[in-house]
Amino acid sequence: MAGPHLPARLPGRRRARARAGTRRTGRPLRARGARLPRARPPGAPHARRRRAGTFLRPRRGGAHRARARTRHRRGRAATRGPRVSFARVIGHAGAAARLARAAADGRVPAAVLLVGPAGIGKRALADAFAARLLCAAPGAGGACGACAHCTRVGAGTHPDLHLVARDPERRDIRIEQVRELTRWLVLQPLMAARKVGVLDDAHCLSEQAQNALLKTLEEPPGAAVLVLVASSAALLLPTVRSRCQVVRLHPLPAAEVARVLDACGLPPEQARELAPLAEGSPGRALALAGEAETRARALVLRDLPRLRELGADELSRTAQALARGALDAGLATALAWYRDVLETALAGDAAALRNPAAADAVRLAARRLSPPALLRQLEAVYDTIVALEKNANRMLAVETMLLSLRAIERGASPGLDASPWKSSR
Q1: How far is the CA of 123 from the CAs of 55, 58, 104, 113, in angstroms?
Q2: Are 334 and 395 members of one domain?
Q3: Around 6, how many Cα atoms within 13 Å sit in the side-chain half-sphere?
Q4: How many structural domains does the chain have?
Q5: Measured CA angle at 137 (ends 134, 143), to 5 deg
Q6: Same domain? 18 vs 109
């Protein structure tokens, strides 16, 4: 029977010759059914599109297919080389020392779970640990950074390093990605003494994907180490958590966040300004460093201190500007503002401010508002963040939040509850 891409009237020998050494792209033939070109030998230039035929492409060799699988397998590691030394990981000295000691003593667990808030450097530590396990000449600070293994790890091309990460367009990690990882782990190492799999965003694993990972965790391959990176251990099944050695990471001090920002090339003044707002997360601070984020922060710091006096039109313009701009940065700045005011109301001038430039406005607001009112305002901002995570309308969410905050400022009962999105939880 003729294949779907070849006319049935072609003699069998011509049809076989057309297929030999070529791969079809799936472009259908035109109805006229013109003669097919001769197959080109492997390595020949691409055939041009024929007037009434199809587009034939030379068959790719095994090396090309291996490179393609490697690029797909490593995902982000192929474009962003990891830090290859514990010394380059800022913060988390205790966790880094624990992992380095386990590697030096030969007591590396089959599965390690790095847990901590988003953006604090969990992935950087996982990369450094993977490099240490693959390095040919490790030192006290981890991987040497100079051997062939470290070079390939830094370039994201090491054959014994496998990264699984969530597709940015999806909310979870697909079970097919986990199955590919488990099949890869049981193979023998190609270059190093062991294989290392890094499963980033492990908290995004679906229940089916976690169950697919269980057999590998229960019966780990002898020459493989699996490193899971998660923002919340509670989102993992108890059977998965119990089979991993858990290493908990904590938010960084503001000084270390500033060091990370300085290492990323931010101006010192901007690094000092953003570090207190980051809540110990360099990733969050970097997300606040853009021009749109800077405008959103300036808008919030301008309007929140005078929210009581804002009219309906001006409040609507503020809500519109936030909803159309960097809303995440605006909400983070609002949280930092109300925390500063609350801590100043409770501790006075001893409070460490996240917005030092707004110290005078913070002190005035702390004298004007009571701690219960400030807690209600914080709750209104938090509930708006939760509503937006559930795909609430941005403009409606921000405008409702500002109306509630203003009503609390004026000492009146807001038209809606101070946490207007409670019913949507």
Answers
A1: 43, 40, 21, 11
A2: yes
A3: 20
A4: 3
A5: 60
A6: no
